[in-house]
Structures
1.
Amino acid sequence: MNPTKRNYRASFILDNRGKEDSIDQIIEGVKKEIAAVQGDVTAVESIGKKDFVRVTDKKFTGASYVHVNFSAPVEGPAQLKERLRLNQNVYRTFVQSA
């Protein structure tokens, strides 16, 4: 491993309502975004569709969850969140150090 990179685990809630993209296509797009911030994806774990505990939109009660392990520079998680902020397919993003 490169000493300038750290390991991270990101959790994504994916939203494909009304879109033709499958969950796998959305995951590939997320992997491209990680690569764009000099990140290397090490593992992808699809959790599947789960219902939300607290529903904020009655028309959107659940979504697909995905965990992605990756290594990236220290500024990588902040850049990734900013890049995914405008992505309509990613509903929520949570990145933590692994």
2.
Amino acid sequence: MNFNETLTALSEIPELQYQGYYWISSSKGPKKFDSIEKIKTYEKYGRPTNPFILEGNFFCSTSQTSISVRHVDNRYLVNKFNLLELDDEQKVEKQYLAQKDLSSELILFTEIWLAQRDENCENMEVLTKKAIVFTGFREMQNES
């Protein structure tokens, strides 16, 4: 099962309908994502431009694709996760209050748990958290 792929550049991010956020090095907080084309302008010749993306998370609900972007050592670490490759019991949805700059919505993440043999448990399979991926936003429900 290959649910995770490492991309070498922002230009490799598939053209899909994403929702999400990104945080630029010259700004005080994250902002909501508006277009994948704009994101790709923060890279030239495969290298980050200035200002650069500190962190970005994008999710396409149609294809169940999650993209994670992190700036480390003057390069981007870009990971693509295909949640369709996983069974429902391997995924646990978590929701948190989004940062004020993103709005009053809930921010959603999915924990990915996979069975792995563990020599400390007599070589039985145990569930191990392999990743936490962004899966969008959800409106908060008023409880009145």
3.
Amino acid sequence: MLKGKNILIGITGGIAAYKICELIRIFKRQEANVRVICTENALNFVTKLTLQNLSQNDVGVGEFELDEFKPEHISYADEADIMIIAPATANTLSKIANGICDNLLTSVACAFRKQIIIAPAMNSGMWDNPFVQENIRKLKNAGNEILEPESGFLACGYEGKGRLCSLDKIFDITKQYLLLSRKLYGKKILITAGGTIEEIDSVRYISNYSSGKMGISIADEAYYQGADVTLVTTVDVQKPYNVVKVKSAIDMKNAVDKEFGTTDCIIMAAAVADYRAKNIAGYKMKKTDDDEITVSFIKNPDILKGLCERRSGETPLIVGFCAESEDLIKNAKEKIVKKGCDFLVANDISRKDIGFSNDYNEVIILDKNGREFHVKRASKAVIAKKILEKIYE
């Protein structure tokens, strides 16, 4: 997803510097070109050789280590699409906020004219210091993205706010800035994701193996393309777009119905339970001496079919999903006719290398005119992009 993107990572002298080795690996797995700048103190926590091997690039430290005529702080700033400073110590972020350029990293930050993401990490007392907080406000006001530290046990032995935020958060925010486009600007898109949970009693339920990864990937990609996104999901996620957390099929139906009148496109990627318990016990049912137990189930509403029947004309565009363990194309063709949706995305859940809880998928996209479009095995992020391309081509 990040092939051809140039990412510049600045590492300062904090204990969390060792974590950035894994961040570099994450970006490299996405085929990004990564360059690293360190302060001299950062090398007390991670070695230059390690960073060079991981990034497959020279690591900048000294401000006047010139191999060519172009000043290094200008060349670094010109080449990178985005700059990340993590961990950012109180010292370094305060220097940047006040225009102090006494090392290579702060000089590059001063010359950088694109997006800078700063992930501070420090002792909780330092984080709460009013001068540090004033410098944080300066950096935010200048357009820098500040990923605030998390609370927890700190290396100094204290408990409080100061831990470097998760690498996933740094990666997600970076990806959002790098991939954001305007292809779907003005479109309001609703996506459902995850497996619904149908309660039996106060502690038991039935569900399925859906992780929600496919639906969340579609929501991410729609957001990157400029759409106004609402994600209705059974999975706990933090995203920069609107997320509505639900549990059961009825909850999901109510949430989707609420958005129906103002949505341009609905993509039903969630694995919605076909049945729910007829009577939900408000207490934990006790085990008896009987070897068998009978629970009565009733049908859940068919959300996808109901949406298709409810709309007038061709608005909103409706996309369904079909998870099959056998006769994939036959069942998918029957389903798109029965449901009445514009597109149906079919995937084979009998395969172990794709589908539920996997980071990869392979799908067949059917349209209402009977055409089939095969998308070979790829990451769900790539599959999401292909799905949006097809339905909006």
4.
Amino acid sequence: MFLTGRGSVLGAAEMLSPISWSLQPFKFVGLYDDDQQKLQAAIQSSLDQNRHDHGQVERHRAW
């Protein structure tokens, strides 16, 4: 289970080879439809926030 800003997402995951001692990649192998929609909304929200934050940095950058 993962907690997101859009609610909890419950699904089955497969653990992949570790990248480092602190990073463990995984992939979802099963999600319910409503959980998939919540996950998509959380990812989109994160992408939108990153674009907004990047725009703020560019606007205030000293050239």
